[in-house]
Amino acid sequence: MTDTIFALSSGAPPAAIGVIRISGPQAGQALVALAGRLPAPRRASLAKLRDSAGGLLDEALVLWLPGPATETGEDVAELQCHGGRAIIGGIESALAKLPGLRRAGPGEFTRRAFANGKIDLAEAEGLADLLEAETELQRAVAQAMAGGAFSRVVSDWRERLLMQSAALEAVLDFADEDDVTTLPGDFMVRIAALEQEIGGWLGRPRAEALREGYRVVIAGPPNLGKSTLFNVLVGSDAAIATPIPGTTRDVLTRPVAYEGIPLLFADTAGLHDAAGDGVEAIGIERALDALDRADLVLWLGPEGEGPDGAWEVASQIDREASLVKRSARHRISAISGAGIAELRADLIAAARGALPKPGEAALSERQHSLLLGSNRALAAARHENDPLLIAEGLRLARVGFDGLLGRTATEDMLDTLFGRFCIGK
User: Fold this and answer.
1) Residue 23's beta-bridge partner residues?
2) For residue 425, which of 112, 134, 190, 38 has the smallest C-alpha distance?
3) Which domains occur in the chain, in start order?
4) Taking 80 as the threshold, does the pLDDT of residue 425 lie above it?
């Protein structure tokens, strides 16, 4: 990280203001080259920005932020200029011509913050989710992770485990001494308590469910109003709804937010045994696959023939020939709107109960896997009698904690994570 990087960190031009960030050892020299001086640290100053030939680029507010007390841990300069394309393009071209400067790649500012110890890996992952958040619940959960809620918990677990490891090492190193012969009486109790706390986190709703939305699949035989209901629930004519059997040939999905809760609705092909052609057969196969991956199925077919846990929905109740259901959870008409408000409220309650709570950190698949490995290592250690095997179990648990915080991260994994960020972040 000897290069100095720069990028537009505000929205794409044209805009009222463009914010260009510069980070690295040459940030101060770059500011002098464009503004003609180095302003007082951490105080906004008005300056005329000029290119190498002395041509005026813009009049802008400039900030000089010497490291390490910066977001990246490096010297940082910030140019708050007018947001026209030509102005931003001219300033970026002038910066690119300076020695030691180059354009930043996706997420490179955040990656430098991680490398310089300003944030750990769990916080960086939370920040990536925060930038991608589209609903209030996604924002609140990602904010908890980005703010270090989970990192503080893991750091506490790690410190407690280190204390237990130290007690164990004393037994191994000084077993022949009179004052250190056995493990403390509460040693296994403390390990069990740690294991129980981790188990509580493993039982929480996962971040993937929140990121993708609570998956609701509408299913049943043909011509029971699945596509019409789908259109009503997503608020658009996304699906073609006709009386012709087999109109829906594929799984159609649309994300929707109800009261800040993300849901993903899926309309599926009508399920029946005698598919009309190969394309319809493929649609039915995909519909069955969607049922397997659903968080909830709204079953519009004959009562009792849906998958386990599905909600029985009596549709088309405004028709004389509607399918009769004795114990339907909801009775609706997507045409008249009868029962739709009640169904929507029930869906919100179900999704809210299945997704992470606002402000509650949620684990990604990577984090869940590492934490599960640590928990299994602790469980194995707790059932051992040999101090050497117990010590190995505690070591493996610490490896998982280190992986969560980024102490053992690989370059490939870091490339994947920071590649999720936009340029300029």
Assistant:
1) 5, 76
2) 112
3) 4-115 (3.30.1360.120), 126-205+362-405 (1.20.120.430), 215-354 (3.40.50.300)
4) no
At 64-92, the pLDDT tens digits run 999 999 999 999 999 999 999 999 999 99
The Cα 161–Cα 180 span in angstroms is 19
Q: How far apart are CA 49 and CA 54, in angstroms?
A: 9
Closest CA to 7 of 64, 111, 63, 79: 79
> Are 129 and 26 spatial neighbours (Cβ–Cβ below 8 Å)?
no
Q: What's the number of CA atoms in the CB half-sphere (13 Å) around residue 398?
A: 15
The torsion region of residue 47 among left (phi > 0), alpha (psi -120 to 50) and beta comes to beta
394 neighbors 168 (Cβ within 8 angstroms) = yes
Assigned token pair, 348? 């919100």
pTM equals 0.75
Instruction: Produce one character per residue of 129-140: b if its CB has 16 or more CB atoms within 10 Å, e if not.
Output: bbeebebebbbb
The residues near 45 (Cβ < 8 Å, ≥ 6 apart) are: 39, 61, 62, 63
354 vs 356: CA distance, rounded Å: 7
